[in-house]
Amino acid sequence: MAEATIRERRAAARRAAAWTVLSMYMLAPEAWAQAAERLVYRCPGPPVLYTDAITPQEAKERNCRTIEGAPVTIVQTPRPRAASSVPASASAPRPGDARVDPAAQRARDSDARRILGDELRREEDRLAELRREFNNGEPERRGDERNYQRYLDRVAEMKAALARKEADVAALRRELAKLPPQ
Fold first, then answer.
1. Residue 168 CA, distance from chain mean position
2. Helix, strand, coil share of the chain (percent; to 5)
3. Could you give the 3-state DSSP secondary structure of residue 103?
4. d(Cα 165, Cα 77) in Å, to the nearest integer?
5. What is the helix (H) or strand (E) element at residue 66, kind and residue range?
6. Which of 76, 143, 167, 168 is deepest in the core (most CB within 10 A)?
């Protein structure tokens, strides 16, 4: 009797396996169609999310709706140009590549040098004035600075302004050094 039940169980297992395989073959075209036609979901919330990378269960949990017949956008990169039969050196120069007349360039350089020199002199004068006011970290107190903290705040502002002005003067000197000699 035990052998009969074992045979029955084996036969039932074979039938179940056959039904499983049969149902997989029958459902396979539907699964392939779903894979080819992925569902696109619109999920609410800031920001609104359009995605096809979530499962139906996740979409349900997030209160997402399916979008029927959603258009698929394909972005193509521009095609590379074919190599020209004319070498690059033989092609006409672009306006930015054209050489500037040496006399015009010298005039531009001298104008730039003059402008930078004038600005450097103004900044150096202002720097000297700031240093004189700063008085090595002990500027004179004003009448409106009865509160010592106000005085300390003004000293800190003067120190920061002095550092900025020194950086400006250094930058102008670097720019002047970059220009070609006269």
1. 30
2. 65, 5, 30
3. helix
4. 49
5. strand 65-67
6. 168
DSSP H or E run through 41: strand 40-43
Q: Which residues pair with 95 in a beta bridge?
A: none
Q: Which two tokens stand for residue 77?
A: 């990169």
pTM of the model: 0.45
Phi and psi angles of residue 65, each rounded to the nearest 5 degrees, phi first: -110, 150
HEC per residue, 3-18: HHHHHHHHHHHHHHHH
Q: What angle do CA 74, 79, 84 make, to 5 degrees?
A: 175
Chain segment 167-178, per-residue pLDDT in tens: 999 999 999 999
pLDDT score of 175: 93
Give the residue from 114, 112, 154, 108 showing the smallest Cα distance to 134: 154
Q: What does the block give as tokens for 47?
A: 């920001």
Residue 116: both structure tokens together: 């930078």
